[in-house]
Fold this protein.
Amino acid sequence: MYKSDIDTIDRKLLDHLQQHGRASNLELAAITRLSPAQCHRRHRRLESAGFIVRYETRLNPETLGLSVIAFVNVSMEKTHAHDLEKFRQAVADLPHVLECYSVTGDFDYVLKVAADDLKSLSHFLMEKLMRVAGVGSVRSSVCLDEIKATGVLPLP
């Protein structure tokens, strides 16, 4: 199933679910003007086709004591090709890494990291990240203010 295989009703379902992940089937049926059974079938079809990857709850980092969000640029050593899988596994195992992207440009990866404070961010960088095989250097930028953070994708 591809983008061209979804119709206006599917888009309504997806749009509503992006913003209201806990919406009931009855709520979705009312929004799409389908019967609950039809709505349920469409919802399951969109899940099985891979349009819906997962459902999650977004927590407030500050209430959990994670007052520092940083973006960390990682450069791998020149001979990093044999360490890529080790790096990916290490990053997957580090709970403070919220997101990791392989990127073009001056760095190899960009990570979004949550930390308790600047001291714990420094500890994470020096004692965890810099010790991962193949990591050559890191450069971090601490987030001063969150202007926009969403997982809602634009639907055509």
Observations:
- The helical segments are 8-19, 25-32, 36-48, 84-93, 118-128.
- The CA atoms of residues 63 and 116 lie 11 Å apart.
- DSSP finds five helices and four strands in the chain.
- The beta strands are 68-76, 97-102, 109-115, 135-142.
